[in-house]
Amino acid sequence: MDSSTYPARVTYSDLSFSQFYDWGRSNVTGHYIMLASYADETRAKLLASLNAKGNLASGSVGGPHRVTKDLVDSLLDDIAKAYGTDRRYIPEPISAMAQFWGSYPFGGGWVVWKAGYRYDDVISTVQRPSLTDQIFCVGADHSRGYHVGWSEGAYETVDRVMDMYFL
């Protein structure tokens, strides 16, 4: 996906999600890829409680990554509020999954780097460890800014690798 034609957009909110990522429309499927997330503390507990009750949402995976209809409805209501639009204009998700990092076995997470290394120098080697093989590494541990250690950071590194090596 050409990031100049289809830039990722982020909306910051004081609602149930702190950040909403819109990666635009897929050239292949025509579907939109969106991530309502970055909730922590009280907001994460609210979303987890919504996800602990009710029926699975249509298109949800099962098991620990399941998403309930209550959670979907709450997030879509808040997305409508954030964008100042009527809820009926926001389509239901085709697929859905959730990860609550405070739950067992995670309980949280952090990323550390060894002192004495230049971050930017290390990142280029981590992203493409071989100059002769088509091997690329992406992940939140080497994203930038506030995204280190978060799912959004992993997506950010995917965008960076795609822009640098494939587009």
- Mean pLDDT across all residues, rounded? 83
Tally of separate helices? 4
| Extended strand count | 3
Structural class: alpha+beta
Count of domains: 2
The strand line-up of the biggest sheet is: 1-2-3
What coarse outline follows from CA principal-axis ratios?
A: globular
Describe this structure as you would to a colleague:
The protein has 167 residues and is of the alpha+beta class. It folds into two domains: 1-109, no CATH class; 110-167, no CATH class. It is 29% helix and 10% strand. A hairpin with a 6-residue loop joins strand 1 and strand 2 (19-25). It comes from Biomphalaria glabrata. This is Amine oxidase domain-containing protein.
Give the topology, please.
Blueprint (H helix, E strand, L loop, with lengths): L8 E4 L6 E7 L6 E6 L4 H10 L17 H15 L35 H9 L23 H15 L2
Antiparallel strand pairs: 1-2, 2-3
Helix pairs in contact: 1-2
Protein name: Amine oxidase domain-containing protein
What's this, in brief?
A hairpin with a 6-residue loop joins strand 1 (9-12) and strand 2. The chain contains four helices and three strands, in the order E-E-E-H-H-H-H.
List keywords for this structure.
2 domains, 4 helices, 167 residues, Amine oxidase domain-containing protein, alpha+beta, single chain, 10% strand, 3-stranded antiparallel β-sheet
